[in-house]
Amino acid sequence: SIYFKKAFSEKWARKENEFFISNQPNISPTVFEILINYIYLGTFSVDNNKISLVDILIASDEIELLEVYRQLEKRLLENELAWKFPKDFITLYHYRDRFNNLYEVILELVCNKPEIIFNSKEFFKIEEDCLIQLLKCNNIKLEEIEIWDYLIKWGIKNTDSISNDNLIKWTSMDFRELEKTLHNCIPYIRFSQMFPQVFNIIRKQYKSILPKDLVDDVLQYFSDPNSKPLLKNLPLRVSVYPLNSKIINANDAAIVASWIDKKKGIPYRLKDIPIKFELIYRASHEGFNTNKFHECCDNKGPTVVIIKVRNSGEIIGGYNSLDWRSVKYKGSHYNRFYIDHKCKTSNSFIFSLFSSTNGVNPVLSRVTSKKEAIIWCKDKGPCFGLQDLWINNNSMFGRSKQKYYKKKIINRETFEIEDYEVFQIIDKRFSPYKLINRVGSVLSIPVLGPVLGPFFGPF
């Protein structure tokens, strides 16, 4: 081959006892033997599962065996199982300019399954610039707090002065050395995508390693999400758990889910949310039509209403632990459907997720008079309390006058609505089919196929 003519020339190799000695530091003896067999025998096979196809591909490119290179490239592009993680990722990172197509493919695989890198023993050996490349990715499927936790672990392992991970036992020198290790990495953490409570804990634990300007930037964002960052204007990462909403994100849903479950302290991690938010109504799509609201939302069980206030960025809403539906009422057809029906519950609440007056702190306002917790009326939208949070008939205006819920959620009694959404709340911990199967087994009643019932329907 042209390559070997060059390799065995006087410029590339030396001759000893009739043998040419050529130094190829980028090619291991095992890989070289595989390629030599191909040259002499015309066959190519990899029996040793420990050998990386990426190593062979790089070597075949180097010695100009284009046919082998094309076969290996095709196999790697078409078969995810052909890769060896984390080795191949680290290798291709160093050759990313030369094999950019393959590098982009493996980077996408790592972003979709980050545990193959972050949970590996080799993670702590990754060089800083390679780690920063991962931190820059906007689509890596990890929560931001998980990324921070992995970064801290990497930093501890790569800081010689730190002998344990117990912060209480650390000296000021340990924190200074950790700051040096992580100095270039920390700016790529999207702290603004964490819960404020979580960031406050991090701020207390690692105050000495977080740049003051960065902390001020994050706190400013929490108090006003529309504020412009002073430092790196990093785009938000794509949510690991996307939510079908134009108003809230998965973090907001986690806060509401925690309130529904009366969970104290830090809200649910996204991966631990036991509740599914199923969008069943969006006002802007339905023309703010009240009849459509009832058509989509009545008799659907517990729901959450999310309202975006026009011109303020405020997000308010309420949780109805009951159905939106009429109650049995003796009287005319008109009275039965067009008067305000008071529905009793102690589990409903209204809330503010972001308010220009409350800033960083979401407001939870639980019901104080359970007899008037929910109001149902055919010619009104969702109503909580006696105007604690109401949306009137076919209206883009809402009312909020604190009366039967504990706290005020907005600082004015009337407001214009930019949009509102209603989500059916589905508890993922509960399955009617599992329940009936369990009851059936206890009573020795066989349950075969789908079960039909007047309430549940087929499932």
TrEMBL record:
Instruction: Report the superkingdom from the record.
Output: Eukaryota
Q: Which InterPro entries match?
A: BTB/POZ_dom, SKP1/BTB/POZ_sf, TLDc_dom
BTB domain ranges (all copies) = 1-48
Listed Pfam families: BTB, TLD
CDD domains for this protein: BTB_POZ_ZBTB_KLHL-like (cd18186)
Which segments constitute the TLDc domain? 246-426
Q: What is this protein called?
A: TLDc domain-containing protein
Q: Which organism is it from?
A: Rhizophagus irregularis (strain DAOM 181602 / DAOM 197198 / MUCL 43194) (Arbuscular mycorrhizal fungus)
